[in-house]
Structures are given as C-alpha cells and as structure tokens.
Design brief:
Spore Coat Polysaccharide Biosynthesis Protein SpsA, Chain A; 20% strand; 9 strands
Length: 266
C-alpha cells in the first residue's frame, strides 16, 4: 500500500543553534514519503550554512512578514496530503509520523490529529510534560491560550483550501490558536492521541517565552473575536502565565481552575 505523502513546514529565523536538531528529528523519522520545507526569513546567523548541508531539504531564504507569512509560503510549496508544522527550535520524537499516518488511515473522517508535547531546555533536557487533552471547541475559545501544541498537530492539506486563509499574517504569537478555531468552526473533526509527538523548546531566544504578555493579549483578542466571551480578565491571564513559568508543577491545577472560571463567565 502506498503511504500518503507528508509535508513538514518549518518557519525559520536566526535559529542556527537549534535548527540542525530540528532537521535531524524529521530526517530520522525514516518515513519513506516525506518532504521537509524550510522557509527562512533571511537569517543572519549560521542557519543558511546548515541548510546547505542537507540536500533533501526544500528551502528558501528571503525577507518575509513573520512566522505566519513563512508558513503560508511553505504551504503553497507543499505537495503532501498531510501537513506538519515544526518550528526551527522544536523537534519531533522518534517514529511519530508513522503513528500519525496510521491514525488518519484508521479514522478517515478525521482532519486534524494531535498529541502531547514535552517542554525542553536549550540542551534538550525535558523540563516538564504537556498533556493537551481531548478536543473541545468551548475550551479552545475560553481557556485563554491554544491548548493544542502546533508542533504535535498534523492537518490534511485539503483543510487549508476550505478555511478563509492559512495563517493570519497579522498574528505573530497565536496564529495557531486562530487557525484551530477556524478549522473547528468550519466543521472539521479533530482527534487527540494521548502520546508525546514533539518537544517544544524553552530558550532565551524563544519569542513566546520572551514576550509572554504580548502572546496572552493576542490569544485574548482571538478568543473574543470568535465569541469566546469574557472568560477571565486579561490581567489575571498574565498573572497565571507567570505562575506557569515559575512553578511548572502547578500548571495542570491552575489550568483546571481557569477553565472553571471560563465556564462560569459564559
């Protein structure tokens, strides 16, 4: 049986210290029908030097309008039936693409498959586990963040032809949140797999770590845009985000409390 083609899109900018680990995590999947597309925003570090080492890559480097714009460029180049989104400092775990394809094959009505993710530091050490959970549009609209890790999500290419646009280039932190809400509102089915698919890197140059207030504000605006309601004040949202960073072992407990507040505010 012919395996479906999978396209992995990697937006990149000045992540030369991490991008090789990202590339290898895709290459080491050993999936026979795979393309890896890297769209670089004109990096000034050693990124291009690393990209040139790998002849299997499809890549381009030019100025762009940010991460969303880079992903959209990659999507237009992609020829796969299934799309994965892996940022240039994150990594896939071993043989997850085979698992994802099997889930799609066994569930033909599903358009998005996603799993869990580890948080890792600059040296690939696991900081904590992140469990995303079953899909719930109300939770996506009201919890104040995108609980689906985009690096652990795989989307059928045909889905992008049905939503208004791929990623909103005016969004710089929570474009994934916006995308998943639009996909769900359009009626496509999500399936959660309770396994770890990827690792998300926390580092000094990770923009969601550096600019957490801007990220939370953007997420808040997106939720309101799609009718999420006044789930919790923005200031409390910022406070909880700081607590997550300082005391990661409290994360799941605080998320449950915040979600209960969101239900009360509807």
């Amino acid at each position: 049986m012919n395996l479906p083609k999978v396209s992995i899109i990697t937006p990149s900018y000045n992540h030369g210290q991490f991008i090789e680990r990202t590339i290898l995590s895709v290459l080491n999947q050993n999936y026979p029908n795979l393309e890896h597309i890297v769209i670089d925003g004109g990096s000034k570090d050693n990124t291009i030097e690393i990209l040139k080492k790998y002849s299997h890559l499809i890549w381009k480097s030019e100025s762009d309008k940010g991460q969303s714009d880079a992903f959209n460029k990659g999507l237009r180049m992609a020829s796969g039936e299934i799309i994965g989104w892996l940022n240039s400092d994150d990594i896939y775990l071993s043989k997850i693409i085979h698992k994802v394809v099997k889930v799609f094959e066994n569930n033909p009505e599903v358009s998005v498959v996603y799993g869990d993710s580890y948080y890792i530091n600059e040296n690939d050490r696991i900081i904590r586990k992140y469990r995303s959970g079953d899909f719930d549009l109300k939770r996506l609209l009201t919890c104040g963040y995108c609980y689906i890790p985009p690096m652990s999500a795989f989307i059928k290419k045909q889905v992008f032809d049905s939503v208004k646009y791929p990623l909103d280039i005016n969004l710089h932190y929570c474009m994934d949140h916006d995308l998943f809400i639009r996909i769900a509102i359009a009626g496509f089915k999500f399936k959660y797999v309770p396994e770890f698919f990827s690792a998300f890197r926390r580092s000094k140059i990770n923009k969601t770590t550096i600019n957490i207030k801007l990220m939370r504000k953007e997420s808040y605006i997106i939720s309101k845009k799609y009718g999420g309601g006044k789930y919790i004040s923005l200031h409390i949202n910022y406070f909880l985000a700081k607590i997550y960073l300082l005391f990661p072992f409290l994360t799941n407990f605080l998320r449950k409390i915040r979600y209960q507040f969101s239900l009360l505010s509807k």
